[in-house]
Each structure stands twice: as structure tokens, then as C-alpha cells.
Write a structure and sequence with these properties.
Number of helices: 18
Largest sheet: 8 strands, mixed
Distance between the termini: 24 Å
Number of strands: 12
Radius of gyration: 20 Å
Shape: globular
Length: about 350
């Protein structure tokens, strides 16, 4: 198996980490960002310095805001941008994609691979592009300045699924040449329905709106997720789990997710969250214009609600948070978000979605 060439789309925290880590492992890497100023700053030295779990100084030969130039001739295109921009970046890439290129959303949030694959089918001349998504970002990382990244941790396991689903094992093998942490799952519903950010971000943010708007400092998880808010999140989780069950997927509950991700156990979500050491220094947002709302509602909760309608599962708690967020941010998140039509699932039922996902 030949070593793949990579294109990294997005030079933010995760994009810095992927580009530097892959280069230090000896892989060819191109890097794209939409921001011309960021690109010019990176081009000055063409280097990214990484510290923490990965140490070294990576040299990136091609850094550009010309997406055609960056993805041309590459095998794997790692998209590492906020999920609200997946559709727009897919439209930018579509004219320049070639057959058998692999586009991986890191992560896909809920329904990312479906949305991007649907766009490619309409707008790309390539007959066969494999679209994949992960359930989470590989790294815990931050980029304090352009050209530097601190990788504080690399996850032990990241799940990846593909469209078509039959490609999952092959893509896992290609990724494992650089990242043994990637493990394939049967189809993208497994990764999409494990988007716990949709549960952990919008509800606590909205229910702490008073604190946030008055700029009162607080620890997001330890102070912001009170027993009653945690109970509401668990109710949302029950709705998510019911959707998975109808689709034949036995998902881990959010309590089980905390046990596997952080090694903590509690009789309730509130107890588990209070035991997570990594949460000790995570502060709450200082504005309601935060990705916890403008990203995690339209690309997390909206598609969950839409999938629920499709399979006949009511999601009253999830719907309440969507509606509350729409009122407070003065946006129609249902219109902006990943509807069934944007996912290519409009007027489809359970049998049809299983057929679609197995293609």
C-alpha cells in the first residue's frame, strides 16, 4: 500500500495539528485556508512548530488559499473546519475533485458526510469520490498563534465511517499508515449519532444565558451543568438513543461515553461531569454568539430532530432547545440547519435510508 498524499483544509487549531503531525511522520502535506492573511503569515516561514504530545518543527511546501491548487493530486483531503462551513467548502471543492479522492470531515457533527456527499453528487464531475466522517477530532489542541500549535493529547480511538460504506475498511487501512487510532464503523449513522457536542453545548449555554450576558466568569461544565441541566441533557440523550435503536444502532449512552472517554463513573450525568479533570479549567463563553450555539444547533440538534421525524421518534426536549436558541439568537435554525432535504433524505423512510447507507 503506497503512502497517501494529504491536503488539509483549514489552518485553525486542528488543521495546524494535522499538518504538522503528518509532515513530521514523513507524509506529503498541502495546507489550505480561506483567510489570505493567515495564509501569508504561514507562507513567510512555511513551518509549523508543535509542542506537547507531538514535538517538532514541520515544513509545509504548499500553503495556499487556492483550493484547486491544494487538493490537486492528493489522495486524502482532511477537512478540519467548523461543521457550519462543510457545505460551502464542499461547493468550493466540487469542481476540482478527481475520481477516487477521499474527503474526510474531522469531525462530521451530525449528518456531515451525507450533506457533503449530496453536494458532490450534484456539483462534481468526478463519478466516484469517497466521503468519510469521524465522530470526534483526533487531537486536543490549540494554536496560540499562526505557525504554532500545542497538542495536549491524541485520542486513543477515533471512529470513521464512509459513503459508500463498503469502503470503510480500506479507508481505515490507509489512515492507519499514519494514524492507528482511526477505527472504522459500519456506516455514517454510527458516527453522526455519536455527536455528543450537540447534547453538551447548546442546552447548558442557553440555560446560562444570564451569566454569559452579564460577563460573570464561570466554569462551563463544573458550574454551568447543574443537576437540573444535566437531567435535561440526559432526557435529550434518551431521544438520541431511541433514534439509534430504530435505525438498528446500539449507541453508548452519554454516561457510557464519559466512562470510555474520561474513565469517570457516576449515578448521574452531573456526578460524572464533576469528576472530569480535563474540565477544571474550561471557562464558559462570554457571548451567546458562540459555536456552542451557531454550530451545534444547526449541524447537531436540527439533523437529530429531522432524523427523529423520519423514523417516527418524537424529540420534544431537543426541539425545545432548537426553538429556544432560534428565539434568543434571532435565527431560524431549522431553516439554516441540516434538514432532510440538505442530507438527501427527504421523503425517505427507514428501509430507504438503510439501502442508501449500504451503497
Amino acid at each position: 500500500m503506497n503512502e497517501p498524499n494529504y491536503a488539509i483544509i483549514g489552518a485553525g487549531n486542528g488543521g495546524h495539528a494535522f499538518a504538522a503531525h503528518l509532515n513530521l511522520m514523513g507524509f506529503n502535506v498541502n495546507l489550505y485556508d480561506v483567510d489570505p492573511e493567515r495564509v501569508r503569515e504561514l507562507q513567510k516561514t512555511q513551518t509549523i512548530k508543535t509542542t506537547g504530545a507531538v514535538n517538532g518543527e514541520a515544513h509545509i511546501d504548499l500553503i495556499s488559499n487556492n483550493i484547486e491548487e491544494v487538493i490537486k493530486g492528493t489522495d486524502i483531503i482532511m477537512v478540519v473546519i467548523p461543521s457550519v462551513y462543510h457545505a460551502s467548502i464542499a461547493q468550493k471543492m466540487a469542481p476540482y475533485l478527481a475520481d477516487d479522492q477521499i474527503v474526510i470531515l474531522n469531525p462530521g457533527a451530525t449528518g456531515g458526510a451525507l450533506e457533503v456527499s449530496f453536494i458532490f453528487k450534484k456539483e462534481s464531475n468526478a463519478k466516484r469520490v469517497i466521503v468519510a466522517e469521524t465522530n470526534t477530532l483526533l487531537y486536543a489542541c490549540r494554536s496560540p498563534k499562526v505557525g504554532e500549535v500545542i497538542i495536549s493529547g491524541v485520542k486513543d480511538c477515533v471512529k470513521v465511517a464512509t459513503i459508500p460504506s463498503e469502503e470503510a475498511k480500506r479507508i481505515e487501512g490507509l489512515l492507519n499508515l499514519s494514524f492507528p487510532e482511526f477505527k472504522s464503523v459500519p456506516n455514517i449513522m454510527w458516527t453522526s449519532l455519536e455527536n455528543v457536542n450537540a447534547l453538551l453545548h447548546p442546552a447548558p449555554t442557553l440555560l446560562n444565558a444570564g451569566r454569559i450576558e452579564t460577563k460573570v466568569p464561570f466554569k462551563y461544565y463544573l458550574d454551568g451543568v447543574t443537576p437540573s441541566i444535566a437531567m435535561l441533557i440526559e432526557k435529550m440523550d434518551e431521544e438520541r438513543l431511541r433514534i439509534g435503536k430504530i435505525l438498528g444502532i446500539e449507541l453508548p449512552s452519554i454516561l457510557e461515553w464519559y466512562k470510555s472517554s474520561y474513565g469517570v463513573e457516576g449515578n448521574s450525568l452531573y456526578e460524572s461531569i464533576q469528576k472530569v479533570e480535563a474540565y477544571q479549567e474550561i471557562n464558559g463563553p462570554t457571548t451567546l454568539n458562540t459555536r456552542y450555539l451557531f454550530e451545534d444547533i444547526p449541524t447537531g440538534l436540527v439533523p437529530l430532530s429531522e432524523l427523529g421525524k423520519m423514523v417516527g421518534i418524537s424529540t420534544p426536549t431537543i426541539d425545545a432547545i432548537i426553538d429556544l436558541g432560534s428565539v434568543i439568537l434571532k435565527r431560524n435554525f431549522r431553516e439554516d440547519g441540516r434538514s432532510l432535504s440538505k442530507l438527501g433524505l427527504e421523503e425517505k423512510g427507514i428501509h430507504e435510508i438503510h439501502t442508501l447507507l449500504s451503497i
